[in-house]
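Look over this record before class:
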Amino acid sequence: MRELVIGIDSGTQSTKVLVIDTRTGRVLGRGAVAYGLIRGLPPGAKEQHPKTWLNAVVKATRMALRQAQAKANEIVGIGVSGQQHGFVPLDEKGEVIRPAKLWCDTSTAEECKEIMDKLGGVEATIAKQGIPVLPGYTASKILWLKKHEPENYKRLATVLLPHDYINFWLTGNKCMEYGDASGTALLDIRTRTWCKETIDAIDPDLITKLPPLIPSDQPAGTLRPEAAKKLGLQPGVLVSAGGGDNMMGAIGTGNTRPGIITASFGTSGTIYACSETPVVDPKGEIAAFCDSTNRWLPLLCTMNVTVATEMVRNQFRWSHDQYQRAVLKTKPGADGLILLPYLEGERTPNVPDGTGVFFGINTRTFEPAHFARAAMEGVTLGMNYGLRRLRELGVTTTQIRATGGGARSKVWRQIMADVFNAQVVTLVEPEAAAYGAGLQAYWCWILQKGQKVTISEITDKLVKLNPRETVEPNPKNVRVYEELQAIQDTLSMALRNTFSVHRKFVLNLVK
């Protein structure tokens, strides 16, 4: 009989599910369900209702099981990857109080400042817990609820993250694993314990509302009968600890030992590495997260990647192939047209009030092809800002494992190699987060059987690279992008105060 695992990736735009053969690592079945954000919210607010995720999990799982022709008794484990930092507030009955504020919600900048001021400022906050409190993280969303919706806050009994909530629905158990918990900005990442000072800065009683922490190699529980029935599975299937999408993406790309860097080009952009020790950035630009293998995951996140390229593509009504052909019509540097891609604010660098800026428009560059290349280059340079900081902190590599929608583009992979000045490779299985969730479930299942195996041994065997898509940097283009990077960095610094003034102006206009 086959031994299969299910990997679930519940993201901002869709939920994707894979059924994986544990012997070969082959994906036997796939399912996907798309959805959107709640419309009509104030500027900066980004929310979804958790029931949207549950409905998608059920539909996508059944699709994947049908395609795999999997029998219920063949499924030995389930792993869940989820979008990080989202705040799912539950009442005493375990019911959702209000829609979840998401990672991309930038409406809590004031709450971030309030928390860090109480802790003694940014540097003191980093000293206490290893990371600052940024608008993307969960901590400020909790204080926002307390200040702006006090009646809802009074009902708050449990704080969960998106993947925790799905685990809760699957198992009936409320818990958090270290990796995803480190993205709340409530955890001391060095000791993997809740940071009392940060919690007290929000509400001393908040500690009673945080779930138990569990190691990443331990199960969250087993599948409860009600959830099993909806999924078409047997009760009692092991559900692993799961983790955030970046932590699961690390597993799914084989980034489970020092020396490998993963770059994810999706709606947002992330670059992260595996470390045996915490990598704390005194400037707070690199997130000193824990990973989902009981180690650490130094990570940078930019909030605007394919959101920028898709905006351009949709504006000119291009297919993806047409977009690539347009980029190839212009040379590297787009004749000086540069994009600051802060369309939804930005996290690295920390510019929550930022907006998008095209700089260098003239009669020569005011052409569709130039906007196409500038968008692709601009978001990649934005990610490189953080990659350079990672290197300053001692995280080095000569190879980037690229995932996400952007990694499917040949021209974009060359831009990545040239901007990062590193070899870029892709993976046979592109859905790294869902794949990683499945592999973590397999690891957990093996350990529960009493067998000794490391997650690296599993990923070395099952994660496969795609050598036909490997790209090397072009030295000439590397020099062009070094100059372009300096210009983008200068523009970003020069406009920081203007972004804040502009945000206040826009908020007054919409009142």
Remarks:
- The mean pLDDT is 95.
- The longest strand covers residues 14-21.
- DSSP finds 18 helices and 24 strands in the chain.
- Residues 209 and 247 are 24 Å apart (CA to CA).
